[in-house]
Design a protein that fits this description.
This protein is an alpha+beta fold. The chain has helices spanning about 15-20, 65-75, 125-130, 140-145, 155-170, 175-190, 195-215, 220-230; strands at about 80-90, 90-100, 105-110, 120. Helix 2 (about 65-75) crosses helix 6, helix 5 (about 155-170) crosses helix 8 and helix 6 (about 175-190) packs across helix 8. The chain starts with 12 loop residues before the first helix and ends with a helix.
Amino acid sequence: MTKIPKSKITIPLMIIASIFTITALSYSPNDVSAEYGQFTIPEITGTIVITETSNDYSDKAQIVLSVAMAVAENSVENGKALWGKLDVTQGFLVYKIGVLANDDIFHKVVVDAGNGEALYVSDGVSKKDWKHSKHSDKESNKKWKDHYADLSPEEREIKKQQWSEVKDAFFALSLDERAKMIMYFMSMKLQFESLSDEEKEAKKIEMKLMMEELLPLSVEEKTQKLREFVKSL
């Protein structure tokens, strides 16, 4: 995975927030990257065996993320791939893809990184089932609610609609554009974890300000902003 110079970390913070909140109506913002471990994957057989631990398996994959996302979408009726990462499962190199279907039903799809076969497609998990399951991140949900605690019910509904439009804008991008953004986010996430607590807090504040500028835009304007960012990578 491409390493990003630390100086560039200030540029796409709104993209971090956008990715985390793609499923804001269905799941906690922080659950987007955490839900992968919440499904029990049955025994699978992949084509690329991994025996050594590494932080980057991209040189071993024979298909790219956008292809895996396409396979995942085709495996779920009316599915849209919202997240993905290259990982090792049961000793095989795979892509783990999060797919959102109609009515915000979430599926996890495991795609072979060699031949592009869908090795596992989870049952759908609804917003209600996820939030009441033992895997729900209660602390994250509380922080999310507290963030808008001072808003009136009408204002919260507006925010909810705006976040939904962020999701719509993201899904309006092509698979290649979404994949490029996700890969960049993964690199950003690694760098963010290396920052000091003070630096992290400063970035969070900057991210909040950027998102406040993005949210009021129309879906078309949000989409254009995301597309412009992808082109800048």
